């Protein structure tokens, strides 16, 4: 069978002929009598009008067909149509139920009557009703199996219809309890065929049928291999051993630039796309497959990329779409491509009436389109845009960064700086049009910027190993990689629960959500004994505490006993466990719980992955194994959260409440055991004291002076106390803090030692070093003070440093970049007025094109204003403040930003006098306030010059001169002082300019960067303004003196 890659016609550059051989997938000849093995990346289903011949399932009418997309080990793309799988659900039947045929007949008639208006032609809605024996997943009700009906229907939409009809009494006026009706067909298919996310699929010889030019069934995809197989005739390999490898997926990162209008954010129905940069690489490869830029109009050559020039936007967009189809990527990536780049391209192509452009997926007949969905998140309602690319995964790195990292700002520039240690030139959208309208050199500069924006997301993807980790998470949890990005956390636990339920004969009930005020008590926190400890503090941690509790005490849906059922079931006291929250569960000797079984497998698999990771030498496999052990850890910890989520698939507060109750009792028991055993009465030098405990860890002061002694006692205590708990609950010695600053509950810092020879890091929890809603001045000051307290052990030096910073703040000597506060715009309207929200409204009025959007983090500073002016009215854009010399409200920063964090960390050192020592005294008595160029009074005031020597106001006859009559004799020396100051400013500006040139990558072009996440940008702007002021001061001395010097 000839399955050569099908090619769409593509345009060519009017300026240069370019090659496409390198980006095309290799052609192949494949015989359908041989086997076929590929790694599936994406899975979906569609409704076919007629069944494929000689396949199981419905033999007439419309049928669902599963579709798997993937890549072989050689890099060939595959589209596999899987036939014969039908959706189904379960209902609980009365024990005396027997008439299956009558039940099927009535239900089939009712469903057909209910769905007669649907477009699909179906002659039989209910395909089969089978009696199954099993148990409800929820609650222990004895050992006898109940009677269930497995109802198989023709189409996925009939599941919900059947559920509704059966609950409403369609058969015998009885309401039936339904099970697993909320499981979609894609997940059901993966569970029933043992397919895990991104697993390898094997089609045996003679069991699959290739599609080609001569086949009866038409080619529907752009994949090199398109085939059909029965759902019963393929093998899904578990991702172990040789099947743990990852196929060479093609990852295509791209970025677009638009020519917007002044003050208006680009709109696809008006503003053209002028450049599209592309960077493509294979998964696991260090080399880039291709790097190019499509540009409107001419563009000078770029050394590290191919330039493709076009005369019209129409030509450029069509050529780019052809490039995508020729490349046939498996994964699209970029930065904010979901909400900007992809929708803009599609909307722009629609405006230009490009008929073929939006066929960007792998199915020939399906157009890609934008859908807006409103999701409820913990921050409120958010609008998300999604685009269908059948067979391709849209992997937006902005979504990944927000999911996996807590950063002050999520701009590409800031993320790259935080994670890669490098920045990029940030060209403001308002000057992009000017660069485009210039010459080929200005367009080249824009193209270099565009390529960088396409290159960085790929580098971030490689650096944080996010795609590798998500592949392993998909394998561990058994869901598709797209589900991980779009369906939240609960689907991962549901998939695992359903797989194990199927094997053990349990059926998961469909949960009906009802608002509830019932809550359970969370984890305990031992009241901290606050202080600055110069003794080593040993930390004892429970290993996988909540999963271990669930395993040890057999806490599960399947083992839960309702209070009124204990006597009815005849359970003896030694057969049940009464938890500290007074809930009842049967012991594993009566029934092994399903959740403990899942958790045991996850923890054992993690142990195996960590062992294999130590011995692995291949960097690609190291990333795979590390991603797997992380995925297993996250999955194990998420099981407890799943049971406590009231708005969830199957909440059970009896389980989550019991887990936290056990956790609380174990923390208290650990404290009691430590303080009882490690005492002078038992022969130890000192009485040990537990100074703090939180969730799964206990901090112990053994009152020994050396790290070695603290570590030895910590290991001994962990081993001793672990024996008091039910296995596998285990207390481990992990680290020693020395010294240790305990501020309050969930607020502490210390030097983290796992080896007595050298500390690992300075560890901070709940302190402003890790909070994002403070200005960077707070973070820097607290960090430096902690370093002086913990690393240098110099409390006096820390106090002196804090006082100096406060003095500099009050005298306007702190750079504005350190005073910028950022907060996320989570909703348009708040109950109370917020500073960042009010500023966003001001910015929208000044420049609608640069208006912040929901989800953006808005930078602002607090400016000086009249007394009692609320803070939300004093928020201002940092650039606007710099340009107009607006004074900063130093008192606000001292009282609302700096004072509380400083007092908190110094209180354990200075006691109750911390506030008066730090915030009052000689260092707070000198203040400097600059004069604003804007404001209500500025229009009615006239500025008078002052003498540059003695700073006295000049008389009218001397106005404009440099000096007053008294300072005139010292004119030469004062002029030299001004010149010297000017040279210092020039040197500083030159150093900043050089740093910006290095970041930009050119020494010969003007700097256009306007990155608000870069401190150098603010400093450069300020020094630039100081230079202008200095220049004016020098010019006041007059031309004669300047010429003489």
UniProtKB/TrEMBL annotation:
It comes from the Eukaryota. SMART domains: POLBc. Residues 947-1020 form the C4-type zinc-finger of DNA polymerase delta domain. Keywords: 4Fe-4S, DNA replication, DNA-binding, DNA-directed DNA polymerase, Exonuclease, Hydrolase, Iron, Iron-sulfur, Metal-binding, Nuclease, Nucleotidyltransferase, Nucleus, Transferase, Zinc, Zinc-finger. Residues 1-22 are annotated as: Disordered. Its cofactor is [4Fe-4S] cluster. One of its GO terms (biological process) is nucleotide-excision repair, DNA gap filling. GO terms for cellular component: delta DNA polymerase complex. InterPro entries: DNA-dir_DNA_pol_B (IPR006172), DNA-dir_DNA_pol_B_CS (IPR017964), DNA-dir_DNA_pol_B_exonuc (IPR006133), DNA-dir_DNA_pol_B_multi_dom (IPR006134), DNA/RNA_pol_sf (IPR043502), DNA_pol_B_thumb (IPR042087), DNA_pol_palm_dom_sf (IPR023211), DNA_pol_type-B (IPR050240). The keyword Nucleotidyltransferase applies. It holds the Pfam family zf-C4pol. It catalyses: DNA(n) + a 2'-deoxyribonucleoside 5'-triphosphate = DNA(n+1) + diphosphate. The keyword Iron-sulfur applies. This is DNA polymerase.
